[in-house]
Write a structure and sequence with these properties.
Layout (H helix, E strand, L loop, with lengths): L4 H7 L3 H6 L1 E5 L5 H10 L4 E6 L21 H8 L4 E4 L4 H6 L7 E4 L4 H11 L3 E4 L11 E5 L7 H12 L7 E5 L12 H20 L1
Parallel strand pairs: 1-2, 1-4, 2-3, 4-5, 5-7
Antiparallel strand pairs: 6-7
């Protein structure tokens, strides 16, 4: 039996495009981890993940692989998804500037560091899909895909837009955000939403590859 039999039934001849896709994913936390899992289970094997964190006990309410307390996230996930490339790297604007993105078909941003997000957008906006804030919300039906300039009700997106404007950026790229009003001030989180952000990110990545 073929583990991807049902994917082949769904995508038909286009499934080969999915299998040949090269995807770069920044961040494998509450959003990125679920995105990684969905892409891998859908036939994408050439995925490079970039993250600098280790798993902490507070990650266990939403992050895949977080049973490995104290482990480096990308190294722990590499054991579950063996074909991926794991980069244990602190993403900074300087690192982004020096990195070669040419080999990748799609760049996925699931981090919350604004200087790094801006640097990634400036360099890769033509093939970028970026996640905004998935915390503080409980209703996944409020998740929306749009361009960065049409986001609203999201503090992370507001800061992102401001810094992009300050950098003179006038292009557009796809983002995922929630229209739901935040339910708390601290970063409370629910896997039903953060995981749905990740699944939406994976879905949009596959759509990008297929088009």
């Amino acid at each position: 039996m073929d583990r991807f039999q049902r994917c082949r039934l769904l995508f038909g001849d286009d499934f080969e495009k999915i299998q040949n896709a090269k995807i770069l994913l920044f961040g494998v936390g509450g959003v990125g981890g679920h995105c990684l899992d969905a892409l891998y289970r859908s036939g994408v094997s050439d995925i490079t993940i970039v993250d600098f964190d280790t798993f902490e006990i507070t990650n266990q309410n939403r992050q895949l692989g977080s049973e490995n307390l104290g482990a480096i996230k990308v190294e722990a996930l590499k054991k579950t998804y063996p074909s991926i490339t794991a980069l244990h790297v602190k993403v900074t604007p300087q690192w982004v500037d020096a990195f070669d993105f040419d080999a990748y078909d799609v760049v996925l941003d699931a981090i919350d560091d604004i200087p790094a997000k801006v640097a990634i957008a400036l360099k890769t906006h033509k093939k970028l899909i970026s996640s905004m804030g998935g915390a503080k919300r409980i209703d996944p039906s409020k998740i929306i895909t749009s361009t960065i300039w049409k986001t609203y009700g999201d503090g992370l997106a507001k800061k992102f837009r401001y810094e992009l404007k300050k950098a003179g950026f006038k292009q557009k790229f796809e983002v995922i955000f929630s229209s739901e009003e935040p339910k708390c001030v601290p970063k409370g989180s629910f896997v039903g939403v953060t995981g749905s952000f990740g699944l939406m990110l994976a879905s949009r990545a596959i759509a990008f590859v297929l088009k």
